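Hi all, long-time lurker, first post. I run a small reading group and we've been trying to get comfortable going from sequence to structure in the token notation. Rather than ask abstract questions, I figured I'd post a concrete chain and ask someone more experienced to write out its structure so we can walk through it together at our next meeting. Sequence below, copied exactly:
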Amino acid sequence: MIPDEWLPQVVRVTDATVLILVFTIFIIFYYFCRNSNESLLSTITHWPTEAKERLILACKYYLSSLLLLSLCALCGSNSPSFQQLIKDHYYIATIGTSIGLFLSLIFINSFSYTEKYRAKLFFFLMHTVLLATTLLTLGREICIKAGFYTLQLIAVLIIIALTAQMNFHEKLVEPLSKINAIVTAASICVTIIGTPKNSLEIFLLCLNIHLGFILFAWMFVLNTQMFIKDCSTERETFDPVYLAAVMEISTLNLFLRIATLATLKATLKNLLILCEK
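-- Answer (accepted) --
Happy to help. Here is the structure in token form:
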């Protein structure tokens, strides 16, 4: 993905990006801990029992989707012929998966949770299986390592979402939408360019990977707060399946960025070992 001569510089950017994110999380966490009386967590404790039960139900759907996603990825990684099929038809598989994910999410959102539950659940399962195909080209070792890092980061981000004020996600919407536009444009350019060959293309790749890593970390905080607040709505408008699907996408976006960063560091380590020999 990246020429060997550029790997050390890109990995240094990776280390700096991780440090920036950790420092930002620490500062914001410290600030919100000093104002814990207005936090989302303190609000949840005063919710009625029915609202808490809706939150638990939504969390069950979310955790079940992650479990199914992991099982599908594990089964796919044990099938060399299926992996080879995806590699041989990479662009067709990528376009087909993207269209399938887009359509399945539309159907999940459009179908009523109470009136068309089976159809909604079918597209939810389809959405999860399609998401699993995006992990097959990473390799089992990278997936396990990235999964371990993702779980740690998610735990911290959930704590941030709970200790933040109830309207914190509203303050995140505008800056994150601007950053998302930059990352999306960089991602499209990287897809078209392929393997970078000069400093400008390396810069676009770093925007896509590193800025995207920070973007999706804070997007997870935003989606977590919206996920929790939507559980406090009336039962008629409550939709745990759609909420779980949104959180699943948010989690996978974060995982893929972490997996990419882990791949870069592993590639550089192997390169240094070969140079020593």
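A couple of things your group might point at:
Residues 240-276 form the longest helix (37 residues).
The radius of gyration is 20 Å.
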